[in-house]
Each structure stands twice: as C-alpha cells, then as structure tokens.
Amino acid sequence: MRAVVLREFGAADVLRPGEVPDPVAEPGWVTVRLKAAALNWHDVLVRRGQYGSPLPHVPGADGAGIRADTGEEVVIVPSLWWGADESAPARNWEILGDHRPGTYAELVRVPAECLAPRPAGYSWAQAAALPLVGLTTYRALFTRARLRAGESLLVLGAGGGIATTAVTFACGIGASAVVTSSSRAKIEQAQALGAKDGVLYTETGWEQAAKKLSPGGRGFDVVLDSAGTWAEALTALRPGGRLVVLGANAAEHAPIDVRRFYFGQYSLLGTTMGGPQDFAGLLRLLGEHPIAPPVLDRTFPLAEAAAAHRHLEQGGGFGKVVLLHD
C-alpha cells in the first residue's frame, strides 16, 4: 500500500512517500481504508524522534475512512488500551502512530474498540480532524475541569486545533470564552467562532489584561493551558478557579508561589488525551449541543506530508491541517 514512511528522524523532509506491506488482519482488530488523516503537533514530535518510534515507521494518529469488513464510515480513536480506570490511563496506554503504524497510509489496523461512527454531516477532512483534539479537549474541559454553562474560560492560544475546539465547545454549551494569541487576526478569527475577545500574549501584563475581560474582572472559572505558563495563568483565575494543563509548548518548568496558590483555593488539573469513555461523552456532547465541526486550516495530498508538516511548524495557520488520501 502507499504510505508516508519515516526512515530516519529529523526535519520535515524525512517524511517521504513509499510502499509498505498491507496490514494483516487478526482477531479483535479492524482494517480501515483511510480517506483522510489529520496532523497534530504530536506527529511532529514523533518525526523528530521524541517518542522513540521504530524505524522505518508510518506516523499519524488521526484518521477517518471505511471499515474493510463492514463498509461502515468511521473515525479512528487514537487512544489505545486506556484501561478500565477513567481517572488515568493504564501503564500500557499508547497513542496510535507512536509505536504502531499510523494513519499516513492507505490502510491502518486498529483495535475494534477504537472505532466510532463518522459524525453526520462531517466531511472526511472534518471527521479526521476530530478525534485527537476533540477527545483531548473534551477530557480537559468536561471530564477534568467540569466546565458548565454560564462559566467563563480563558484559552491560552487561539489558532491551534485544541484552542479552536475549546472555543467551539465552550460556546456551544453556553459558557463564555476569551483567548490569547500573538496575532490580532487570530483573535478576530476566534471571535468569529464565538469567543468574546482576546489579548496579545506578546504584550507585558497580558494576564492582567485577560483578567479584565472576565465576568466582573474577577478572573476566569477555568484556564486551559497548553503552554506551561502556570504563574501567568493563575493570575487570570478567579479565587477557587481551575487551571487545566495539557501541554508545555512554552515552558517545561513552572515556578508557583505556593502560599498564593493555596490561599487562592485553586485547583491544578493535569490532563492528556482521554479514553473510550471520554470519546463516548464527546459524541453525546456533539449530539446535544449546536457545536460546529472542527475548523480546517488547509488540506494537502497524502504524498505532500512533508509540506504539510512544514506548514504546521510555521505556526501561522488557524485550525487543523489535514492529509487527503484520494
């Protein structure tokens, strides 16, 4: 089958079209003929060798296509073997495309439990863009932070898949959202999705400027932090607010004023992509609320995965980047 093959770790150009053997069926597993695969920053880290993937390797976590055995149109849930404990993943949990062949190919093999129906009205590109960011954002906002209608959310960042999904989810359930960005244009695009406003994190004192945009200027109920800037994020929280952390894009270490933290009665919640229970909750959320499909930034043919990675790494896009397989 045709695939994008990683034979060495490095820059985007190491992603090259090639031929690899078709996946072999076995009990409990299903082969999917892919129509689209979405990029995630996680794929960039796999390409760079951060997850020690075996070489040669086919990367890619997100995908949507047709089950080879039944002909059903499905999306792939890239969370493998989460386990029975909903509070945290099992020790053998992994993400599709880390150590097993992923979705940058014509075919992919996954456990049967990792398939869900393609949402009604979604294009193949939108369906492929949903699973990882949708699952991650759902778990962060609802399983972990318990965000409710009428509450306020600050999203650190405005243009990535998690950020755009968080804005649409929050606004869809009746919460309010504010974003941060390095670009006024991205703030305006987030406002078009429903965000109330935004601030430029490139400006000194952005956390105080953001806090002024919260209800009554008291601070936000929830801050979603994929950057790792905890000290600034806590400043934007109301007393008793919840800080949900799912990334370290800007910093891997975060000093905190401990006295200020406990006197503020804050909650610090770590989170990752979720499991099948979270994905079931995500599908219920989409069915019960007027939430738009994932925002698409740009599509590329499968063979141009290297160009797609370069575009993603440049950081100027808004929404998801998707590879189309036809």
From TrEMBL:
UniProt-recorded Gene Ontology molecular function terms: oxidoreductase activity
Classification via Gene3D superfamilies: Medium-chain alcohol dehydrogenases, catalytic domain
Highest taxon in the source lineage: Bacteria
InterPro entries: ADH-like_C, ADH-like_N, ER, GroES-like_sf, NAD(P)-bd_dom_sf, Zinc_ADH-like
Domain Enoyl reductase (ER) residues, every copy: 10-323
Family annotation (PANTHER family): DEHYDROGENASE, PUTATIVE (AFU_ORTHOLOGUE AFUA_2G13270)-RELATED, PTHR45033
Descriptive protein name: Zinc-binding dehydrogenase
